[in-house]
Design brief:
Chain A: Essential cell division protein. Chain A: InterPro entries: Cell_div_FtsQ/DivIB_C, FtsQ, POTRA. Chain A: This is Cell division protein FtsQ. The complex is a heterodimer. Chain A is of the alpha/beta class. Chain A has three domains: 70 residues, Ubiquitin-like (UB roll) (Roll); 124 residues, Rossmann fold, CATH 3.40.50; 31 residues, no CATH class. Chain A is built from nine helices and 14 strands. In chain A, α6 runs parallel beside α7. Chain B is an alpha+beta fold. Chain B folds into three domains: 205 residues, 2-Layer Sandwich (Nucleotidyltransferase, domain 5); 76 residues, Dna Ligase, domain 1; 54 residues. Chain B contains 13 helices and 18 strands. The relative contact order of chain B is 0.15. Classes of the chains: A alpha/beta, B alpha+beta. At the A-B interface, α1 of A face α2 of B.
């Protein structure tokens, strides 16, 4: 028996000892937590799901989406319209006034504008569709300058075809259209289907025809394979499909030596280079026929037989 | 026997699956303490000289990654008394070990100390048809062992082939491919109460764990505490536990006897509590901190302050001499050792070639125990600590954990048991043949 009994009023009962064993639920949860797949799912999956769900719920409202996109756009615009990104002037080098004006008109925005609004690649593709421009170098230089260095195509030849007359450069690419031959009398003229595909050869032929250039009216493409050099007085030089320049030089040599083209000849046929053929004019042939005593030819090239017979009869 | 064969084989398969997964738990459920080790089998087989750890007798293919121990609950004399309490204790210790290891434990190997173990030495003999021993002959000779009636409700815990003999040549460890006409074997069978095992299995299953093996606690502690030479030459291992004292005898690396003395350290604590009129925790503390079995003159002057722990005035502070404490402890320890002596005598330990006795278990740390044991048991006494295993923390290396360490060794390298050999075909139950016949009839 205890001799001294504690009668203090607010005596605390001894604390109940906690059971150190985990409860079955806690034990199972701990074991589940030790599974790597479960742990990964909770550590990555649940936060990701929560973030996605919050964002989705917030964005489900139309007004909030509009506010968000507006805010983003405003920030973007604010940055893009800063002084540092402004393009104030456009400098065009190496272009004729017409092309210069066309280029400035092609620019999709009014200057000054932000450099983010100018899509240089698209602009370049658009400009390159102009036939007159061979190449263009577009860039935005520091100081807000849009610089365009243009190389124009040089007009080299005129091409008359069924739909009109076009100016071509030395590679046969179209430069511009003209309404009449008299607009550019300094350029040689070619004609015929497919003539634009053989412009370099035509230019070489024109160079070779130097001595008779005042008489040359133009080159005609025949059958998209060979050239005819047309001269005044209805004369023409028929050139072969291959080796046309050499044949031309041969014709020039003949002309220089014997004044061939000054005579009554309608055509010089050089299509077979080893055997040049001359077609005489109607007067020359009649002179020969007269000397031989043969019936004369009419202006259409037919024999005047009826009249002879009538005269003879 | 066939049913047991199937369950044990199933446990072996679970153990193999656990080893493939790489993590296995060790659950040593004792009367006073429950310990759990988590082993990782990574199979590297490397050891680091820098850790001061030697090659460790080949136990290098696993390491301990988590360990925990706590006070046992609901256990009495190595048997489960209150299932729910024991289940809580298992949950506590498994949760703690898992927390340390950071991995989930699904498969455990447990040990059983109580359950009235009984050892049987069985002998079997067959004639060899082929003139030499083949694989199936080993299984046949094991199946030919004539089993005595173990009694009702007894389960076989271990059935280890100890010795093989071909004709006149005996002492063979592996008889395969030996030429001869007659194969004989000796098998050691350890049986325990089936209900005790059933309770243990049920407890472990209720903690969501799968049982991958079960071993006798005396066997496990002997595997950890006996060094290889002692196992080979013959030795007895005495495991002083809380609720019982396990005795096992090894020779030629095989256990040939195991038994349990039902007096343990808890009885000593009870004696102290009754003799000094102190609560049990105080008595336990006195026993572990100042206990002993050999009183000297100095112990009379060595006064111990006892905090009675109760609220009353006179129980609060007293002092007893250490000689009083020793005087209470010594008769009980002597009684334990006498019990062990009886068990050893019954097992015929005197006729063993080697009389080595190894004391282990938490009770073997009583100062002076080896001197007392030498007087009662025999001259060759040593106190054994468990084998070093990789990664085990220092506080788990004292003798009290030798059965846990032994279970870890058992998990890594189980000795051949009867169920590790293929059962001979003629002893298959006829039911399965009938089932096969029915299957063929239905499907062809």
């Amino acid at each position: 028996m205890p001799e001294v009994i504690d009668h203090r009023p607010n005596r605390q009962p001894p604390p109940v000892k906690r059971d150190p064993a985990p409860s079955r639920l806690q034990y199972r949860l701990e074991r589940m937590w030790l599974r790597p797949i479960w742990r990964r799912a909770v550590r990555i999956g649940v936060p990701a799901f929560l973030i996605a769900m919050t964002a989705g719920l917030w964005l489900a409202d139309e007004d909030r989406r509009a506010v968000l996109t507006d805010g983003v756009h405003q920030v973007v615009r604010k940055v893009q319209s800063r002084e540092e990104f402004q393009v104030t002037t456009m400098v065009v080098e190496g272009a004729s006034p017409v092309v210069d004006k066309a280029l400035r008109a092609m620019l999709p925005v009014d200057l000054p504008a932000s450099s983010f609004d100018i899509d240089l690649t698209a602009l370049r593709l658009q400009v390159m569709q102009l036939d007159v421009i061979e190449s263009i170098d577009l860039r935005i230089k520091p100081g807000g300058i849009l610089s365009a260095v243009v190389k124009e195509r040089e007009p080299a030849i005129l091409w008359r075809h069924a739909r009109g007359i076009e100016i071509l450069d030395r590679n046969g690419h179209r430069v511009a259209s003209v309404t009449a031959r008299d607009v550019r009398p300094d350029l040689p003229l070619i004609a015929g289907e497919g003539a634009d595909l053989a412009v370099p050869e035509a230019l070489a032929l024109m160079d070779a025809a130097g001595p008779i250039l005042p008489r040359v009216r133009g080159l005609v493409r025949r059958g998209e394979r060979r050239w005819d050099l047309m001269l005044d007085h209805g004369q023409r030089i028929m050139l072969p499909a291959t080796g046309a320049v050499i044949a031309m030089e041969a014709a020039m040599a003949l002309d220089r030596a014997q004044d061939m083209l000054g005579r009554d000849i309608t055509a010089v046929d050089l299509r077979n280079p080893s055997r040049p053929v001359l077609r005489l004019g109607i007067d020359a042939r009649n002179t020969i026929r007269e000397a031989r005593g043969e019936p004369l030819l009419g202006p259409d090239g037919k024999v005047l037989q009826e009249e002879e017979k009538k005269k003879g009869g | 026997m066939a049913e047991l064969y199937q369950t044990q084989r199933a446990m072996r398969n679970i153990r193999r699956a656990a080893l493939q997964r790489g993590v296995i738990g060790i659950l040593d459920i004792g009367t006073s303490k429950i310990a759990c080790l988590v082993l990782r089998f990574d199979g590297t087989g490397t050891f680091r000289e820098t850790d001061g750890v030697g090659p460790m007798a080949g136990q290098v293919n696993f390491r301990v990654i988590g360990a925990a121990s706590t006070r046992s609950r609901g256990m009495r004399r190595g048997e489960i008394e209150v299932m729910a309490e024991t289940e809580r204790a298992i949950r506590t210790v498994v949760a703690a070990a898992q927390k340390v290891a950071g991995v989930r434990v699904d498969h455990v190997i447990a040990c059983l100390s109580g359950g009235r173990p009984a050892s049987y030495g069985l002998a079997g003999e067959i004639t060899l048809d082929a003139g030499r021993v083949q694989d199936h002959d080993v299984a046949s000779v094991l199946a030919a062992c004539d089993a005595p009636d173990f009694g009702r409700g007894r389960e076989v815990l271990h059935a280890q082939p100890v010795n093989f003999a071909v004709d006149n040549r005996t002492g063979l460890g592996d008889p395969r491919d030996h030429v001869g006409n007659r194969l004989a074997c000796d098998m050691h069978v350890l049986t325990v109460d089936g209900d005790v095992i059933g309770n243990l299995v049920q407890c472990i299953r209720r903690c969501d764990l799968e049982l991958a093996g079960i071993a006798s606690a005396s066997y496990a502690s002997a595997r950890a505490a006996l060094v290889e030479d002692e196992q080979e030459l013959g030795a007895a291992c005495i495991d002083f536990g809380g609720g019982g004292t396990g005795v096992s005898i090894f020779v030629k690396k095989h256990m040939i006897f195991a038994d349990n003395v039902k007096i343990g350290g808890q009885l000593v604590t009870q004696d102290i509590a009754q003799g000094l009129r102190v609560p049990l925790p105080v008595a336990e503390r006195l026993k572990t901190l100042s206990g002993g079995v050999e009183a000297t003159g100095r112990d009379d002057r060595d006064m111990l302050e006892i905090d009675g722990g109760s609220d009353d005035w006179d129980g609060r502070r007293r002092s007893v001499s250490r000689a009083d404490l020793i005087g209470i402890m010594r008769p009980r320890v002597e009684e334990i050792l006498e019990g062990v002596r009886e068990v050893l005598d019954a097992a015929g330990f005197d006729s063993m070639p080697s009389q080595q006795i190894v004391l282990t278990g938490a009770g073997s740390q009583i100062p002076g125990l080896d001197g007392l044991a030498a007087r009662i048991l025999g001259p060759n006494i040593r106190c054994g600590r468990p084998l070093r295993i990789d990664g085990l923390a220092h506080q788990f290396t004292d003798p009290g954990f030798s059965s846990a360490v032994g279970l870890a060794l058992f998990a890594a390298h189980p000795q051949d048991e009867w169920w590790d050999f293929e059962m001979p075909a003629n002893t298959y139950p006829a039911r399965s043949l009938r089932r096969a016949y029915r299957w063929f009839k239905n499907n062809w």
